[in-house]
Amino acid sequence: MIEKRTAQRHRVFKGGTITFENGGIPCTVRNMSVGGAAIDLDAPVMLPQSFTLSISCDDFVRNCRTVWRRDKRVGLAFVQ
Q: Which residue range or ranges hold the PilZ domain (predicted)?
């Protein structure tokens, strides 16, 4: 398998929240890199084109967009 990521990812297991105009959804952050993250949702949910990922225990907040999806796991790219 060829690795396409430009930055190394690190496994994590942290509670997070996806927030957008109409509300928020809890999630579990499974891995992170400088450029993005993979999260697990409790159920398959339709997400808006852009949203915010927050991890309160780390004071971490990033604007994101979805880059891939497999059932309840979602790959995110951090945007400027």
A: 3-79
Which amino acid belongs to residue 38?
Answer: A
CATH of domain 10-40+48-78: 2.40.10.220
Give the pLDDT of residue 4: 61
Show the CA angle centred on residue 68, arms to residues 64 and 73, nearest 5°: 90
Question: Residue 31 contacts by C-beta under 8 Å, 6 or more apart in sequence?
Answer: 9, 10, 11, 12, 37, 38
For residues 51 and 80, the answer to whether their CB atoms sit within 8 Å is no
Q: Above 70 in pLDDT, residue 54? A: yes
